[in-house]
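Task card 7
Instruction: Convert sequence to structure tokens.
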Amino acid sequence: MRDKPIGTSYKPDNVYSVDGLPSDFQRVLVLPLRDPDGRELAPELSDAVLASLRRTARFEVVSAGHRGSGVAELPAESLLSANRPIPREILAEAKRLGADGILQVAFTHYRPFKPLQIGFRGRLFALNTAGQSGEVLWEIDELFDGGHRPVAIGARKYSESYIEQAFPLQSSYSSLMSPARFAGYVSLTAFETIPPRSASQSGSEMDPL
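Output:
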């Protein structure tokens, strides 16, 4: 008999979002994912984050990093902020790729040993018709602690649903032991708080950048 995870999974609550994404919000430029020191995330973590984002199917995902764009070379402090203009390199890359919005994600805390911990911060901007500035459609700032029971239950349920392992290695605890799998769980849980696209713009009032 397998030990099935039973109980309530953790639900993020430090989240802001509109009620629904604009109906024509179809493609999003994802900036280089950052670790707590402002460097790019390790490839296995970055891959896990992007896979979870695509799994939500909220919009088409295109990644920044085209070397000629200059986006990958921007220092962390030059990236998006709600109170200053979006750097021209990012806007140019978004225009080149036909993006309707820009997503910024960073790990604010990372503990790669038990209990695994990830601080996850994300912000989604919509570009205006001129493709120059935007509004914040969604943002989250959460700490996921694998030692916290609801987080552990959520991670185990993620393993049950998305991690395929050959018998007899099947274990719902794998996402509490593998940093990449835990990152996948954290990212999916965070990105599922992004609202789906709506037929009409009925979102809550948004603050201008």
